[in-house]
Design goal:
single chain; 69 residues; mainly alpha; globular
């Protein structure tokens, strides 16, 4: 069960990877978002992950590094 993850571990659901296009290893940018907005990565929905990746790809297509600020 997801709630039974040992200390120091997190549980992620398969939809997060399949529908949200979340990949490991995640970039620093993806890791900074929960920290900046003060939520846990498991609270990000698959659709939210798609938006994060779209923003990241849009920045990279313009030759910019994505930043959380």
């Amino acid at each position: 069960m997801a709630a039974d993850a040992p200390p120091g571990y997190i549980s992620l659901f398969s939809d997060f990877f399949q529908e949200g296009n979340f990949r490991l290893s995640a970039t620093n940018f993806v890791g900074e978002i929960p920290s900046y907005y003060r939520f846990h990565v498991s609270h990000l929905s698959p659709l939210g992950m798609v938006r994060v990746r779209h923003f990241k790809f849009s920045c990279r297509s313009q030759g910019l590094d994505p930043i959380v600020d």
